[in-house]
Every structure is written in C-alpha cells, then in structure tokens.
Design goal:
The structure is a homodimer. By secondary structure, chain A is α+β, with helices and mostly antiparallel strands. The first copy, chain A, has helices at residues 16-22, 32-53, 88-93, 114-126, 189-199, 240-249, 255-262, 268-278, 291-303, 318-330, 391-397, 444-496, 504-511, and strands spanning 12-13, 59-68, 71-78, 97-98, 130-135, 142-150, 155-164, 171-179, 204-208, 214-217, 337-338, 342-343, 347-349, 352-362, 373-378, 381-383, 419-427, 513-523, 526-536, 541-548, 553-554, 561-566, 571-579, 589-593, 600-601, 604-605.
Chain lengths: 626, 626
C-alpha cells in the first residue's frame, strides 16, 4: 500500500510570472553580463516594431548608467507611436500579453514576453520599480509611471501614475534598474547595436555607455521600413488540431465560406474543388466537422493546386540592405568578393510563411586559418548567442563547402577559410529554441531552405574563384607581354639595325586588358590622387570607376567617374582630392562597373553589382523538381 | 502625427496553452521523429519521480503502436502511487500545474508542463483525445478518463470519466495518439530507454516497438531510490527580489524567526549575527523591510559563517551506479581505463544547491580518430538533444585536454581520442535552456563546477597514462630480458664450453613482473580455458583474477580466482569452462586486484577499483583556496 509522504506539497497552479521568475535563463537572463544586453535588445525590438508598424523613421536613444558596482539603470527612449495609458501596466507588467501574437505578421516581438521579462528581471535582482514615460500624438500630455510586477498574479502593479509635459509629440521611454555586468567584445551591447544598425539603415541610434561615452549611428536611408502585412494561415503544413482551433473560432456558417475566408490562397473555386475531393457538402456547418472529416480535407489540400504563400507577408532586408550592411561593417577588411545577396522564395512551416536571405564575403583581410564567421539574423534581429543550438549553424555545418573551395574536415562542420556568411531567416512565426529567441529551432523545412540559399551563394563563390583564377592568368600574360614584347622589339631592331617599331597596338592585341593605376601627391591639407586608366585592348573602352580611399574624404560631391571613349592603346585619367588625409597612404581601392570583370586589372568589380542574373527570388537550380 | 494602422490587432492576453500550441518546438516537439521520443520521456520522468517519492521499485511498460502511416498510439503504464481522480484533468490538461514547482527538491519534472505538453501535441496533430487510467491503493476502483485541452482557457476537458476494475493495486497508464515518425539510431527512444536504465538500475522496463518487438530491461538493484529531501532556499546567491518574494509569503512576525525559518543553514544564532551586522532590529516585522534593508542583510550573509548547502537535498547517482552504468553500456568496447567516478561537493546557483558527478572511460575499442563522446545527464535524465547548447558541452570544450593526453586543436573545442565522458548535473532546480529540458543553461557557477569535476577525472586519466607508459616500459624490458638473457647464457656457455646455467632467478630479478597468459581447447559444448600466472618477481606473489570472456558463460558460480603463494620463478594456473561458446575465440580479458598495477602483464586492473583515495566528495586540489 502506498501513502503520500507527508512532506510532499500538493498540486498547485503556477503563474507564468512565477515560472519565469524561477526560469529566467530561458528568457536569456542567464548571466550578469547578458542581462543588460537582453534588456536593451527587448526594448529596441519593441521600438523598431512599433516604428515599422506606424511608418516612422526610428530614432532611438540608449543609455546605461552605473548605479552601484553591479547595478545599472538602462533607459531606452524612442520616437514610436506611444502607448495608451490604460495599456501600460499590461504591456510592461503582464507576461504573455501583446498585440502581435494572434496575428500572422513578420515582427521582431511576438510573444508578449520580452519587455515584461526585462522589468521582471530588474525587480528580481534589485527590488526596484521600473519607470515608463509615454506619449501619443492624440494625447495632450505624456504619462509617467512607476511600476512593478505582482508575480503571484502575473499582472502589472502601478505605484505611481502622473501626467507630465514631455518635449516630444510621440514616443516611449522605459527605464529599468537591474543587476548586471557591463562588458565589451563579441557578444556585447555595442556589437548588438552595430549589427542592428547594419540591418536597420533607416534608424538613428545614440548610445551612451556607463563611462558616458557617446556612440552615434546615423541613418543612411531616409525611407521608413515597409510594414509586413498580416496573412491568414496557409493551408498546407497545418496540423489537424490547428484546423480544429480555426473551426472553433470561425464565424463562417458553411464550408465554402469557411475555406475561402479562413485560409490564405484558397479561392471560392479552389474551396469547391477541395470539398468535392474530400466528399464534404459545401453547405455543411464547419462546426460539425469531425477529426476524420478534417483529415479528408487535409488530404484534399494536397491534391488541388494551391498557390505559393503570399510574399507580401514577409519583409526581407533586401539585396540593397544586405550589400550596404556588409559593406558598412566589413568594408574595412577589404574582402575580395561579395556575393550577390540570395533571396529564396517563400516556403512554409506549419502554415507559417518564411524565407531565407543570405550573403557571403570572402578574402581580403579576413583570417584564412580560422573557422568562417556566421552572422545570424532572425526577423531583422541579430542573434549573438547560442550559435550551437541554431538552425543556421546546423545548415552551414551540414553543407559540403569543399566543392566551393573551403577547407572542411570530411565535408561537414563549420568550414575554415577567409569567409563570413550573413544569413537572415524571416517569417510570420519563427520557431525559436526558447523564449529568449537566441537561436532558431532546427525545424527540417527551415534547415533545408537555409541550405538551398547557402548552396546558391556557394556556387557564386565558386564562379568568382574560377574568374579569379582566369584573372590571375590574364595578369601574368599581361606582365609577360609588357616586358617581353618591348624587349624583343628592342633586340630585334638592334639586330636588324632598324628603328624600334611602335608596338603599342601589338601589346594591346596580345594583352587585352584595361589597366587601372594611380599616382598621388601630398599637399597642405590632404592628398591629391590621380587615377590612370590604360586601354590595352583593341576596342574603344568605357568604364565607370568608384574610388574607395583608405582614409580622408573625397572633396566635393562626385563619388564615381564615367570614363568613355578611350581609344585602343590610349589612356585617360581623373583626379580627386582627399581632404584631411593624414599618415601613410596605402593606396585607394578602385571599384568599377560597365566592363567585363576579366578584362580589368587594378580595380575590383563593384561589390554585389556583377553576376546579376534573373529575378530577385532565386530558385535553386537543383530544386527545380520540387 | 501618428495613427494606428487599421489592420493591427489590439493588445490581448495570451493563454499559456495558446503560447505553447504555437511554440511547441520549445517543448521539444520540433520534428515528427522527436515527438514520439518526447512523449515517452515526459511520461517516464513522471513515473520515476512518483515511484521515487513513494519508495516504490519502478515497473514501467512502454508501448508504441502504429495507427496510421504517420500516426502512433503511445502508452506508458507504471506502478506508481496513482493520482487522485479530481486531479487528473489538471495534471494532464493544464499547463503550469504541478506539485514539484514550489518545493525545492531534486526531481526530474518540476514545471508542470511535460505530460500536458505531450497531451497537447497529440491533440494538435491528430485531434484525438488522450486516455488515462489511474488507481490509488486507497481507492476501491480505478478510473478511466478520455480528455483533451481547452487551449484558449488552458484547462483539461474531460469527455468521459468512468470507474473500472484494473488488475493492479496502484498505478497510472496514459495513452496518447500523436503524429510522429518512429526511428532507431542515436537519438531514438530505444537509446533513451537504455541510457535511462543505466542510471535507474532499480527499474524494470518493458518496451514494445511498432513492429511488436519486445525489449526487456531488468533491474539489477533491488533497492528503491532514495527520495531527495526538500530544502529551504540557501541564503547565498539569492537575488534581492527573490528575498522580497520570501518576505511577502512568510508568516514570521519578527526578523529572527524569519531568517531561521525561511532559509536553510541559518540558525537562530547566525540570524542574530546577521541582524547585528545589517543593523536590523531582531523584533522588526519582516514585511516592513525596504529594498535597502534587504541589501544590507544580503551583505551580512556574506560576512557571517554559513555552512555549505545540505547535501541530502541532492540525490547523486553515486559511484556504484556510475561504474555499473558505464560497465553495462560500454563494457563491450573493453575500455582500458575507467576513472573512479568523481562527485563534487554541493555548490549553489541562485540559492539552489546543485552538484556534479562524472566518470571517464578510455581506450579499448573506442574510436581513436573521432571526437570524444559526451554522455549528458541532468537529474538522472539522459540528455540526447541540443549538445551544442549545453553547459556540459561548453565545460568540456573549455577544458584543455592536451595535458591529459588528448588531441585538441589549440586547447579548446571537443577533443579527439578514444574516450567517453559521462557527466551528471543534479540539483533542486536546474536551469534548462528551454522547457523541453534538453540542455543545461550555461550559468557560470554550473559551468565552473563541471570543469572542476572534469579536471579531477582528467588528472586520474593522466595518472593512468603515466602508469600505462611505465607498464609499456616494463613489458619491453621483460621481453628483452626473456629473449636476451637466455641467448647470452647459451652463447656464454658455448664459448666457455660449460653447461648452460639455470637463469630463472636472474630473469625474475631483472624482469620483476607477474605474467598472465592463457591456453584453450574446444570441446563438445564449449571451450576449456586455462589461465596461467608466472611470477617473474623476487617475492612470493598473490593475485586475484577475474576473467571476462568474449562470449559464452563460465560454468558454475565462481567468477574470480584468488591465487596466492606463487614462489619467485614459480607459476600457477586455474581452469574454467565456457558453456555454449561458438565461433572464433578472441581470448578472454583478465582483470586483477591485489597487485601493483605496474607489475602485472597480460591482465587489466579491475575497472574503478584502483586509485581509490580519500573521501567520497572530491574537492579539487587547486580549488582548496576557495
């Protein structure tokens, strides 16, 4: 006979706040150094989402002040739309409360957890209340709150609320005091802000660190981000029980309305076809569907033609963003190759559309002897932690990079080589491995799509490697021709006692290159650089040159030079001035467009601008059969 | 002016069931093949916890039937104490409901999520209800339920409840129909069951797979597991806000009662000291404490002497379990070295006691060219997934194994070599990276303790390697002596024309080894093996030999042979019979005890039995200063 030992506690309900109080590492608060990072991240996610939804160009200020040795006050202020004062206690004080959970749209935040978790963490570690100031355009005044969380009840506790005058038309400021450790380095706040700025080039961001040092990241694009549109669930990939939930919630009175109103990509006509195949009367009340009926309907989904999920539910970074982002952050490493950004067409996991973008940079000063660097983004948020748990890392590890020219033990694992990969996974509901959203779960559909994107980027790297090999051969040929032909001419003319012939045309015919070089002279306030273009081809040549100087600023507005009509064996030059240039001059990097990449020596193809082919969405060739 | 775009949905509360319905990968349900595994695991965790709490020797039956191609019915039946019928809808149908969350005890389950998540997953993927049968000793009949989950309300929905006659005095059976994929291999159900059996040697487990193949894992120990005792929070490591929560909940009327009743390891005397240092009146009502008072009290905690956390709140596997577990599972690989299991003294993270155990096996048939295998356990549950996210993997990667004789690029990362490490982290509240409890979060205190345990095991491996090196030298010396000395004797006697002298004593004097070899002969129903022991030392030798034959069974009861009194240059032998031996004989492995390991050739020291030193709890030497 079994009796309950007396000390065992009885069954009890656990509030979600209690649960997260005891499991705060699940929310990303697993160490003092990560805590400050998480608070900044959650607040910025919210600010960017709110600005995006309302078509506002984001302006965000982040400040971290040291209150005690291991205690900081973190304040994030935005120019977002502001929050209705009656919502403030719920938004900041109630876990699992939000506006983005029930819709199907691509947003950074979704779960109604993040910022409340930050307030909770502050309260747990310091016992301090958080402060919120918010103002909407339609309100005459701003409101200031001091609030905390009633953990047993999972609700916001307001200790003070008062109207106040604030010098902005709209915006929100939240100030949380929390125990933490401020650090710099790879997984730091400043790194996160930089990576966030890279994919949000329309954001103005100011950061003041605990030493009161100010960092300013100015926007480089003046257009608000496109707001993603909400979509209905995509019928394929849904689970039977999920359709049951849709049945419970629908107000449709018959099956035809039900199918065409509750799912994306099902027209009235398609609905009719589905119902015929499933043997379900179109007049039938959807609420009467038994599991077996739903199963038949799901089988019918697979038998009719349903269009791919709508891509306007997704907001990719876009090729321009990825290119500029990579240039901004990694330009100083002078990579020799930037892949054209890859963007996969929308795919679906569990009825949720998602997509994958990626870009590669290779060569230059990137370290050749270490593992490649993987830069991960999910719905425009950089992922700095938990790489080992992430679908992106898994997909990179499971791709054989040896055929694209990288070193990789037995064709799996993170390869070695001078390369960085940026992968962005975007979707209306991304599966993260935990509430802290640090890694994307290895859902097979997602891993497969990432792999497809990587293979496309890998192939463009391979193409580049082949071209590079070809260019090296051209350069060698040119060197030989330039040295040998005149030597032969001189020798021959000497032997024959004749005058040395004009051999320029001959060199051009054999060399077949356009050579870009430069000369420079320092002056009082900088450096004057002259770029010289020699046409050693047999045709009249045109080229556009974009100088990328190592330091200083090019005077005036001109950033690119179109040189046209250089005769065979002819030359051209242009001059620019580098203001305030100081120190040793290492030479300007020249990019070019408008010429065959294999013909030009001394300048690099403009990153991302070549190898342009086909539509924006790239189908992987080998996937065509799917 | 900013206006809300019309399509945005309003703020709303999200039920925890809705949250997990949309985020089921967080619960471990991220692929069809893992789903079945998770259901089995959650049910077994509950069964083992319940048996442990009630002092029952667990008997568990697991059955998986295929219902459709990708749909299975999973049934887990235990002999646990049974569940009060009024609790059934909550236990199986309400997330965040349970008995183990509010106590501080080491248990497998804790959060009140696991089994409900399994029921939820079944419902989402198949629309089917789950079935529960349960009986307690004190009830006359069993009760059978058909139930599901009301997702919007997060509560159990009972469709059918009826009393029934069940042929057991107490127990619970749960049957869940779910979509899934049945697979074998490394991360499979059968692998999980084996690893679970390894650390629960008092469990009887029967498993019937979808092909109706039965696997039986019989218990090898007849003692119920020790139930962990509940403890109060340990004062050091608690956050200020956590102490605030204890203040809110306490019924103590004065500070002296508060401190001595609500925390572990604070006596009335210590409480007095703390209050003097903090400058708080011992008569003061704890409910009047301001954050600043709590901070002073926390500083005082650090200034007084507080004993280490009580170790009876923790249930380690124990040395015997780890040794038997490793032998059971890895014996067939004949590792040449088993480390003595390491058990660290209790440490604390956030007021929660925890500890680390580990064991190493090395050599034998373990693959020498691959990365070492890491076997992870948390509170006696094997962790098969998410190694890259786990504190155990992190600790192994951050340990420099080169000094212990393994290959490791630049002293970090998973090392290469013929080694397996078993690490068990146990505690009253382990921080997992997500609700699926697949990986332990990298909380610095825990990572540090694992590293300390690994270093102790690493040093014992190093000691072994040194001994092995010494043995190799001895063996070489012995070979030389055995061949050279007689050759010299023969040559010399020939040269001198004298009779060859008896050189046995000379060999012994130089060789100084005990040699174990064997000879064998097949017979009608097996093999007769004779083990021979030569004493090439200068002393009378005694040794105990334990044969471990490759196949067949040793006739009779005798498993070890004590051989004593072998004179110098003498020999001894014993014979045993291997019943039913068939096929090619590879030779028996001999283990020995009772002799210096460096002196014996041809036999291995009995695993785990040597290098015994000091107390059960091992302080790391270099940590002595802490």
């Amino acid at each position: 006979m079994v009796r309950k030992p007396p000390e065992l506690s009885a069954n009890r309900e656990i509030s979600i706040s209690e649960f997260f109080e005891k499991n705060r590492h699940i929310l990303g608060f697993d160490s003092a150094s990560k805590a400050l990072f998480m608070i900044v991240k959650e607040a910025i996610d919210n600010s960017l989402d709110a600005c995006e939804e309302h078509g506002i160009l984001p302006e965000i200020e982040v400040g971290i002040e040291r209150v005690q040795r291991d205690e900081f006050r973190i304040t994030i202020t935005d120019n977002g739309p502001g929050i209705d004062r009656i919502e403030v206690p719920n938004v900041f004080g109630k876990l699992l409360y939000g506006s983005r959970f029930h819709g199907m749209r691509q947003t950074r935040g979704q779960q109604g957890i993040g910022i409340t978790a930050a307030v909770l963490y502050g309260q747990i570690t310091t016992g301090q209340r958080s402060q919120v100031i918010t103002k909407r355009t339609e309100d005459d005044v701003a409101y200031m709150f001091e609030l905390g969380i009633d953990i047993k009840e999972n609700r916001g506790q307001v200790f003070l609320e008062k109207p106040m005058i604030w010098d902005r038309d709209h915006g929100t400021s939240v100030s949380i005091t929390a125990r933490g450790k401020y650090q710099t380095g790879r997984q730091s706040i400043i790194e996160y802000l930089k990576e966030t700025a890279a994919v949000n080039p329309n954001m103005d961001l100011t950061f003041t660190d605990p030493e009161e040092k100010r960092f300013v990241l100015k926007r480089v694009i003046e257009v608000p981000s496109r707001r993603s549109t909400a979509v209905k669930p995509y019928p394929l990939g849904l689970e039977l029980g999920e359709i049951q939930q849709i049945v419970i919630a629908t107000s449709a009175k018959n099956m035809s309305d039900f199918l065409s109103q509750e799912f994306s990509r099902i027209s009235r006509k398609t609905a009719g076809e589905i119902l015929v195949i499933a043997g379900i009367d179109e007049k039938r009340d959807p609420h009467s569907l038994a599991p077996e009926d739903i199963r038949l309907m799901m089988e019918a989904f697979r038998k009719v033609q349903i269009m791919a999920p709508p891509s306007d539910s997704l907001c990719p970074l876009g090729q321009e963003f990825i290119r500029k982002g990579l240039l901004n952050v990694y330009g100083e490493l002078h990579p020799s190759f930037y892949s054209k950004p890859v963007m996969r067409p929308p795919a679906v996991h569990n009825g949720n559309p998602f997509s994958v973008e990626c870009g590669i940079v290779y060569g230059g000063d990137l370290p050749a002897d270490s593992q490649i660097t993987i830069i991960r983004y999910a719905n425009k948020v950089p992922l700095l932690f938990q790489p080992g748990a992430c679908a992106i890392t898994k997909a990179v590890s499971e791709t054989d990079w040896r055929s694209y020219g990288l070193e990789q033990r037995s064709g799996s694992g993170i390869p070695f080589g001078p390369m960085m990969i940026l992968v962005h996974v975007l979707g209306t509901r991304l599966p993260y491995t935990s509430e802290s959203k640090e890694a994307i779960a290895s859902v097979p559909e997602i891993v497969d799509e990432i792999k497809s994107a990587l293979r496309i980027a890998g192939r463009s790297l391979k193409t580049y490697m082949n071209k590079k090999e070809k260019r090296a051969k051209v350069m060698e040929k040119f060197r030989i021709v330039r040295e040998l032909v005149p030597a032969i001419a001189t020798k021959t003319s000497l032997l024959l006692g004749e005058e040395k012939p004009d051999i320029t045309g001959v060199i051009a015919k054999i060399a077949n290159v356009i050579l870009v070089t430069e000369k420079f002279a320092t002056d009082g306030d900088g450096l004057t650089v002259t770029c010289q273009i020699y046409n050693y081809t047999t045709d009249v040549a045109s080229i556009t040159i974009i100088p990328d100087p190592p330091a200083g600023e090019i005077s005036g507005q001109q950033r690119s030079w179109d040189i046209s009509g250089i005769e065979p064996a002819g030359e051209a030059e242009f001059t620019f001035h580098l203001d305030n240039f100081q120190g040793k001059y290492d030479g300007t990097v020249y990019y070019f467009t408008g010429q065959d990449v294999t013909k030009v020596q001394g300048a690099d193809p403009l990153p991302g601008d070549w190898d342009i082919r086909g539509p924006e969405m790239m189908e992987e060739e080998s996937d065509a059969g799917n």
